[in-house]
Write a structure and sequence with these properties.
It is a multi-pass membrane protein. The chain has 499 residues and is of the alpha+beta class. The chain folds into three domains: 16-120, no CATH class; 149-263, no CATH class; 277-445, no CATH class. It has helices spanning 16-26, 56-68, 76-82, 94-102, 149-159, 191-202, 212-218, 236-244, 272-276, 279-309, 316-325, 333-353, 356-376, 382-396, 401-421, 423-439, and strands spanning 33-40, 43-50, 88-91, 105-110, 116-120, 165-172, 178-185, 231-233, 248-252, 258-261, 441-442, 445-446. The strands form three sheets. The chain has a five-stranded antiparallel beta sheet with strand order 1-2-4-5-3, sandwiched between helices. It has a five-stranded antiparallel beta sheet with strand order 6-7-9-10-8, sandwiched between helices. Helix 12 (333-353) runs antiparallel to helix 13 (356-376) and helix 15 (401-421) runs antiparallel to helix 16 (423-439). The radius of gyration is 30 Å and the shape is elongated. 32% of the residues are buried.
Length: 499
């Protein structure tokens, strides 16, 4: 087992000179480390910090000015109660001091005292709060998380202003310490889910957790599957809605996204926009997405299977059109389909990596030029171009980028099976996918919930939406403590003004 490396030495009875040597050694003699030694009231005071991580104005106003103007007793206890710093930690552990300095704190130590103070005057550079980029919306709040943990916590607190909202702090990583907050509503979230998250984070043995997407992969139930098991979102309102339904969120330091669990397969096809729109429109959009994903997976393999093995299912008028369009194509349907799918993936990846305006032009112009040239050169047929385009559009309707990538990936083995065994190959692939999804779990909960195990009352939170007056209970698949959302009251009927 990987052993955590921590320095348990304390600063008890250390001199300022010896402490300075300990800090320099512990921080690798870094040139940007600033250590100041002051003499006040006959005592030596050490201040250690990274100048680029602190606010110079706060340092002057909240630390240096009150310190130099003091006429009372100079001790860590007195400073703890009088310095105008919002967050002060008392510590005598060297490893805590080192981590505090790295995070933008100023360490203040008075020679002869058994403890020192970590003063939070951090000014960690981060981008401002902006609109969401990966989860674009037409309706609803568009503000997104950013890389500063304090901002993300504030955004979430602002939306879930419930005194029972709890944020539990943990540290993850052996070499690079990363703060992770488990956030949930105490009287709603299932304690078993909270304990499972807590245990997996505490048992995690890794050098570092750079981002929430990596953390989600490291605590998954099954690391071999293609399918994501936790929703990773940059929208605070999506996290707040999940918390109100009994789910749990993870806020990760230095990450602009939060992790939500447990998340079922259907969670990756939902958006907050479905909630903000009227219930019938939200249901229609979810239905469109599910149909689009099904067609995205099925269309190209069906084309390959029909042209290779099942000509009899094609109407004669359409068969003539297919025959004429493929008359000059030298490849079998499976090679033709794989070639076009590969070209589409190349265009998509190139468009995603190029600057926005250039990427959009590349995708549109490249698709038109290459598609037209491929048809004229006899590499493919017109009908397959249409099918491939519809399949690509269907995969792009998925709100989750990761799930969309999964859909595009699994098309390739299904196309190969369709070319080898026809319709039987497609059915084998679909049966394998269904069995695989049935075996998957997310935070110990069934991945296909509420379809398996079947919960009729929970379908209105996943596959479709219903009018608000019927949303009286929370989804039972999340095992909420408080299952009631609204009281079951008969809606009052008001008479028309002319009556």
């Amino acid at each position: 087992m990987f052993k955590k490396t921590t320095r348990k030495a304390t600063i008890h009875s250390l001199t300022v000179k010896r402490l300075k040597e300990e800090l320099i050694e512990g921080l690798s003699n870094s040139d940007d480390l600033t250590i100041k030694i002051m003499h006040l009231q006959g005592k030596k005071i050490l201040l250690a910090f990274f100048s680029e991580n602190i606010s110079s104005d706060r340092m002057s106003e909240e630390v240096l000015t009150p310190l130099t103007n003091r006429v009372l007793d100079l001790s860590y206890k007195s400073l703890y109660s009088t310095l105008p710093v919002s967050n002060i930690n008392v510590t005598n552990l060297i490893d805590e001091v080192l981590m505090g300095i790295i995070r933008g704190h100023v360490y203040l130590f008075i020679e002869g005292d058994p403890f020192g103070l970590l003063l939070d005057v951090a000014d960690i550079k981060s981008r401002s709060i902006e609109t969401a980029e990966s989860e674009s919306l037409v309706y609803g709040p568009k503000v997104s998380f950013n890389e500063k943990l304090e901002n993300n916590m504030s955004l979430l607190r602002n939306r879930v202003n419930d005194p029972r909202l709890k944020m539990e702090k943990l540290e993850v990583g052996n070499r690079i310490k990363t703060i992770v907050y488990i956030t949930y509503i105490q009287d709603i979230a299932d304690p078993t889910n909270v304990e499972t998250f807590r245990q997996r984070l505490n048992d995690l043995e890794v050098d570092s957790v750079i981002d929430s997407t990596l953390l989600a992969q490291q605590i998954e139930d099954n690391s071999w599957t293609l399918f994501p098991q936790y929703v990773v979102t940059e929208l605070p309102d999506r996290v707040s809605l999940a918390l109100l339904h009994g789910k749990i969120g993870l806020l990760v330091e230095r990450s602009p996204a939060a992790v939500i669990g447990p998340s079922s397969f259907f969670s990756f096809f939902e958006t907050t926009e479905d909630v903000y729109l009227r219930w019938n429109l939200g249901s229609f959009l979810r239905f469109i997405r599910m149909v689009a994903i099904f067609l995205s997976i099925l269309l190209t393999p069906a084309y390959v299977a029909v042209l290779t093995y099942h000509y009899e299912v094609i109407p004669s008028s359409l068969l003539i059109s297919l025959g004429s369009s493929r008359a000059n194509v030298p490849f079998p349907p499976v090679m033709e389909a794989l070639l076009l799918e590969f070209i589409i993936e190349l265009l998509r990846e190139a468009g995603a990596r190029l600057p926005t305006k250039v990427g959009q032009t590349m995708g549109i112009v490249g698709g038109i030029v290459i598609g037209q040239a491929a048809v004229q050169a006899g590499f493919t047929s017109n009908i397959l171009i249409i099918i491939i385009a519809l399949g690509a559009l269907g995969s792009f309707t998925t709100p989750s980028y990761v799930m969309g990538a999964v859909v595009r990936f699994i098309r390739f083995p299904i196309i190969i099976l369709a070319g080898m065994f026809g319709g039987i190959g497609i059915m084998f692939a679909f049966c394998f996918l269904i069995l695989h999804l049935l075996r998957l779990t997310t935070l110990g909960r069934p991945y296909l919930s509420p379809v398996y195990p079947f919960h009729l009352s929970d379908l209105k939170y996943s596959l479709f939406r219903v009018p608000p007056q019927f949303l009286t209970n929370r989804a039972s698949s999340n095992k909420p403590i408080d299952s009631n959302r609204i009281a079951k009251k008969q809606k009052k009927q008001y008479a028309d003004i002319d009556e």
